[in-house]
């Protein structure tokens, strides 16, 4: 990681510390914090320890001429920056260092962070919506939401921060919204959305269209077989043309195909 390139993305973050009290440049501390976190640091003391263990390397990069700051200083400095500003810088930086080729899959999903609920302090669990680049296996960006129900508003905000041109964006049923699909298409991407009963009209239309389509009409077919727990499970995935559905649901911008999963299960007795 080049320090000059890092500064291009994070050097715009406002430093709210009093100038006459600054001993360590903000970008130096941000560089250390990000680097240590990538290396597995889980707290402020870990970040300080990582810095002390690699102090010669950091100083060779022109950083921390006066030595590595203490963990309290690191924590106070990071606490002074605007989270949203850092978040935007981080997402832009991640997109710059992560090469997304045309057709890359970006999976957007919401998760509740483990052990984030604090009963004593009455702090609710932290719920995050993340964008994961499947090929590169890195998180491109994430936003915190108040609850899972707020994913619908968080997903458009996260998409607006990402360059998804030429990429396929997959989202579960929570994100199966006309406005989200339209935004993805407007930003130059394609969408893969799960259809469930939270969109009853669409789900009914899909079921009606599929009832009149045979698997022989599949444009693509993939099979997957698993064996375990005393049974054999097989799943077939079919991709079918969506012309009939397009005429019924013209408001779904860019709709081209339907994907269908068909599951089979055979137990120990041979019963299917």
Low-confidence stretches: none
Strand content: 15-25%
How many helix segments? Answer: 10
- Sheet bearing the most strands, described? 5 strands, mixed
CATH class of the largest domain: Alpha Beta
Secondary structure class reads alpha/beta
Q: What's the shape?
A: elongated
Assign the CATH superfamily of the largest domain. Ribonuclease H-like superfamily/Ribonuclease H
Q: How many β-strand runs?
A: 8
CATH architecture name of the largest domain: 2-Layer Sandwich
User: What's the arrangement of strands in the largest beta sheet?
Assistant: 3-2-1-4-5
Total domain units: 3
Termini gap = 55 Å
CATH-assigned fold name of the largest domain: Nucleotidyltransferase, domain 5
What Rg, in angstroms, do the CA atoms define? 24 Å
Written account of the structure:
The protein is of the alpha/beta class. It has three domains: 3-94; 101-194, 2-Layer Sandwich (Nucleotidyltransferase, domain 5), CATH 3.30.420.10; 195-272, no CATH class. It has ten helices and eight strands. The strands form two sheets. The protein has a five-stranded mixed sheet with strand order 3-2-1-4-5. The chain has a three-stranded antiparallel sheet with strand order 6-7-8, with no helix packed on it. It is elongated.
